[in-house]
């Protein structure tokens, strides 16, 4: 790998906990994984089907960089989003 980084969305994390995302493929595609504190809050606001599912999420977050969000980061995220949709 060459320093590929991924910022994970809450949907990806929740689907992975339900085994609806190929986690091995995802892990092999990137070197680093990050989430924002907002994603952290969204995921833990989700009602998990089982304790095993929640344990998987706990293990995942224990190994991710959780980024605090400030205005500068929020503005940059909006720039990325606008460029992606055009």
Summarize the structure.
By secondary structure, this protein is an alpha/beta fold. It is built from five helices and three strands, in the order βααβααβα. The protein has a single domain (5-85), classed as Rossmann fold, CATH 3.40.50.1010.
Descriptive overview:
With 86 residues, this protein is α/β, with parallel strands linked by helices. The chain has one domain (5-85): 5'-nuclease (Rossmann fold), CATH 3.40.50.1010. 58% of the residues lie in helices and 13% in strands. It has helices at residues 10-17, 23-29, 37-44, 51-62, 71-85; strands spanning 5-7, 32-36, 65-67. The protein has a 3-stranded parallel beta sheet. α1 crosses α3 (37-44). It is globular.
Question: What does the secondary structure layout of this molecule look like, with pairings?
Answer:
Elements: E1 5-7, H1 10-17, H2 23-29, E2 32-36, H3 37-44, H4 51-62, E3 65-67, H5 71-85
Parallel strand pairs: 1-2, 2-3
Helix pairs in contact: 1-3
Main pleated sheet = 3 strands, parallel
Radius of gyration: 14 Å
Average pLDDT figure? 87
The CATH top-level class label: Alpha Beta
**Total strand segments:** 3
Report the β-strand fraction as a percent range. 5-15%
The CATH superfamily title: 5'-nuclease
The global form is: globular
What is the count of structural domains?
Answer: 1
Q: Percentage of helical residues?
A: 55-70%
């Amino acid at each position: 790998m060459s320093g590929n980084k991924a910022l994970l969305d809450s949907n990806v994390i929740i689907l992975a906990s339900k085994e609806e995302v190929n986690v091995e493929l995802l892990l092999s595609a990137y070197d680093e994984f990050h989430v924002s504190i907002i994603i952290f809050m969204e995921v833990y606001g989700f009602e998990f089907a089982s304790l095993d599912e929640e344990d998987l999420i706990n293990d995942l977050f224990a190994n991710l960089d959780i980024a605090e969000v400030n205005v500068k980061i929020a503005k940059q995220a909006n720039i990325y989003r606008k460029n992606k949709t055009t």
